[in-house]
Amino acid sequence: MATHSAEETIEPAEGVVSSVSYKDPDAPKLFADSLHRTGFGVIRDHPIPQPMVEGIYKEWLDFFQDDAKHKYAFTRETQDGFFSPEISETAKGHTKRDLKEFYHLYTWGRYPAEVSDAARRYFDLAFDFATELLGWIEDNTPAEVKAKFSRPLPQMLSGPQHTLLRVLRYPPLTGDEDPEALRAAAHEDINLITLLPASNERGLQLINSNGQWTDVPSDFGSLIINVGDMLQEASGGYYRSTTHRVVNPTGDGARRSRVSLPFFLQPDPDVVLSERYTAGSYLDERLRELRHK
Ligand SMILES: O=C(O)CCC(=O)C(=O)O
Ligand SMILES: [Fe+2]
């Protein structure tokens, strides 16, 4: 039987992100409710092994500290590979580049010889789990909202070929950064949902329903899931693509790298999201805004 004790509310305010145990029979509903209320949900006791995540953090940190990464420089045509801090993203509506470097992994893309296949194995596990979560969302969406979906959410993907695993490193701060630059400026994700294991360092924040920045509950070992613009568009705003950012650390944390592993679940390009957009036309528009195109 489900009990309320299995759901931990993080802050005693309205609209707080719920942390739910994967093993709770009510998890699908609690999770979908949290996405509806806050745009974010947190899952504990999930099937993605934590040692795998930690191993990826460790070996990719070494990779980012090695010049070999430049062999895999991203290309405009394919959008896979290594993005250096010099060409890192500028969030929509911002002028300063984020203080980060990252590698875009696609199932069909280049994979660095310098690391083990753990990130590839992670990709497969994350894809299966994310597809299961789309089923949870589908099953717990009110009928009038579900009627807007051009097909059931798990069927918006024929496979993982458009989905992106981004391995991100935020380097230690030197003190010479532009005072207005952040590790990741306020933004929304473009895709359907994003899966993100808690990072090795703090810093992830969301704008809550009162318009205030608050920390996303990020207990090490838990998975954070957030709604992207495409799910917001497809659900007519029932699920909100909540603005989030990664703030710069102060004190000791400033001398450490932060690693994270967002997995952006992407529908097939021909999927109709709304009267205005297919997934393909939507993605094109947003990538142009990010200045990668
Ligand atoms: O690094 C993080 O914790 C979040 C990264 C993020 O929001 C993104 O890359 O879209
Ligand atoms: Fe994001």
UniProtKB/TrEMBL annotation:
Enzyme Commission number: 1.13.12.19, 1.14.20.7
PROSITE patterns: FE2OG_OXY
Pathway: Alkene biosynthesis; ethylene biosynthesis via 2-oxoglutarate
Stored Pfam families: 2OG-FeII_Oxy (PF03171), DIOX_N (PF14226)
Record carries keyword Oxidoreductase: yes
Reactions catalysed according to its record: L-arginine + 2-oxoglutarate + O2 = guanidine + L-glutamate 5-semialdehyde + succinate + CO2; 2-oxoglutarate + O2 + 2 H(+) = ethene + 3 CO2 + H2O
Keywords of the record: Ethylene biosynthesis, Iron, Metal-binding, Oxidoreductase
Fe2OG dioxygenase domain mapped to chain residues: 160-267
Cofactor: Fe(2+)
Family in the record: Belongs to the iron/ascorbate-dependent oxidoreductase family.
Protein name: 2-oxoglutarate-dependent ethylene/succinate-forming enzyme
Upper classification of the organism: Bacteria, Pseudomonadati, Pseudomonadota, Alphaproteobacteria, Hyphomicrobiales
